[in-house]
Amino acid sequence: MSIRIEQIAKTFGRTQALEPIDLSIGDGELIGLLGPSGSGKTTLLRIIAGLEQADAGRIQFGDRDVTNLHVRDRRIGFVFQHYALFRHMTVFENVAFGLRALPRKERPSAGDIRARVMQLLDMVRLSDFADRFPAQLSGGQQQRVALARALALKPDVLLLDEPFGALDAKVRQELRRWLRHLHEELHFTSLFVTHDQEEALELSDRVVVMSNGRIEQIATPDVLYRQPANRFVFEFLGDVNRLEGDVRDGVLTCGDAHLRVDNVPDGRQELVLRPHEIALVDEASADSHLPVTVTAIVPVGAEVRLELEADWLVEPWLATISHSDFERLAVQRGKRLFAQLSNWRQFDAPVAKPAAEIVV
What we know:
The chain has 360 residues and is of the alpha+beta class. It has nine helices and 20 strands. The chain has helices at 41-49, 91-100, 110-123, 139-151, 169-186, 197-203, 221-226, 231-236, 323-328, and strands at residues 3-12, 15-25, 30-34, 56-61, 64-65, 76-79, 157-161, 189-194, 206-211, 214-219, 241-248, 251-254, 257-260, 267-273, 278-281, 288-289, 291-300, 303-309, 317-322, 336-341. It has a six-stranded mixed beta sheet with strand order 6-7-8-3-9-10, with helices on both faces. A five-stranded antiparallel beta sheet has the order 14-11-12-13-16, with no helix packed on it. The chain has a five-stranded antiparallel beta sheet with strand order 15-20-17-18-19. The longest helix has 18 residues, at 169-186.
């Protein structure tokens, strides 16, 4: 089921929660709505669901205009962050609830309901837990029950609001892989809200980055990370190092540090770069004299994360290097090395940071 959003806007009092937004979602796409608190992502999801009414604009599911349809008539499945399971019902009864609540003419037979529920529980790997109550399940298992319940009515669209936000890191990672596999198997159209960059980049076919009620960029995870549309997108998607200095004739100077920066205009400039775009060497070069001191060392998986400080830096840098480079350079706290940059970006002007708001 494709979704088309045209000029959807929403205001709460004097707060502009959503500027007029346009968004097209293809049939079977898994879309991540990513942004900080106050960006409008949850408001947009709730408007798509019919839980909030837009002030202006139109929403289409395929050829159906659902702008003014009640939530029960939109044929959507909704998964909440905190599961919203019925505590007094078993897993089976929770999943069967929507089917049994259908009008008599639309309600499947008891046998069909049982077959549908057990098929879904098998799909989410919980068929052995059908007779348990929510309190007897882990957080990850409860979330899978909530997803099975949302899928029971065969919705045209599945919407998820921070679906893994209440879970610990390891369980979140496992459920992300599982949901991606389930989506590829069933090929349903889905939108999920998250403020977790890694989650959005891992799960989504495309990511919609939002800020201050507007869309900053829509792109595949790879394009989004490698070609951010503006400074906000770049800074929101990962760790950022900043280098500020005066540029003259293609050379940036900052204290006793200097760096060759072709194609950067003269004047006061700020460059931004990722931790993996920093290499460390024992000696400076003619084009790069960036002396740093290692102040912290954190081995993480296949990499070693280093905190680097220098008199010419306004704030410490974070660098990631391989274990082999770490051993070759004999890195230890207090060691003086030189940074070399494989890449950087220079944006014309910073994007205003979102103000703290209660609207999400």
